[in-house]
């Protein structure tokens, strides 16, 4: 399907893939068609891609769920989901989650380039990425509670990992908005830059990631991603095993 039909444009340039939400007239409000498009792309991601950049066209990253779709009566609407058997409804939501969860797969590093609003599903899309570069005008909110809903696009664990349980609870239960300065202060932002410098900052970060050995970065990502669930001894063992693999691999290259 075309970008006009799905609302998502995918571009690959060697080791860099860019996912662009391209509905600027509605501040890149998201639909199930967009989530399916992102999930489909993840299955066909070229093997040489190392960095995935997620961005929004226009003045916002994403204003969240498109309520004109969700509030209607057709496929993907709240009304339709509410009529489904419980397991079928859960399965449908799992399908939607697939458009987000792949962004922290082990073999790529994902970067969210966030300007303007990142609300609800937009905030969760930014959270799905490994790194978040925020423009100074960014406004973030986990606004699902204001609709009587919960965040269900794989964002809750990521939020807790980044800011801790109590802060995550306050953010989700109030649905309030935070600016880029606060997001930086509490650990949500990797980097905050003036809006005019957002694209350049993402390019520089991407270049820094690509400058180093891919296999080493994959090992590093796995070590850090699993660190929170391991004991100190288990983490040290994981480090030893990863380093052994790297040493053997590097020695093999020299033969």
From TrEMBL:
Name of one Pfam family that matches: ECH_1
Gene Ontology MF terms: isomerase activity
InterPro entries according to UniProt: ClpP/crotonase-like_dom_sf, Ech1-like, Enoyl-CoA_hyd/isom_CS, Enoyl-CoA_hydra/iso
Region (Disordered): 231-255
UniProt family annotation: Belongs to the enoyl-CoA hydratase/isomerase family.
Protein name listed in UniProt: Enoyl-CoA hydratase
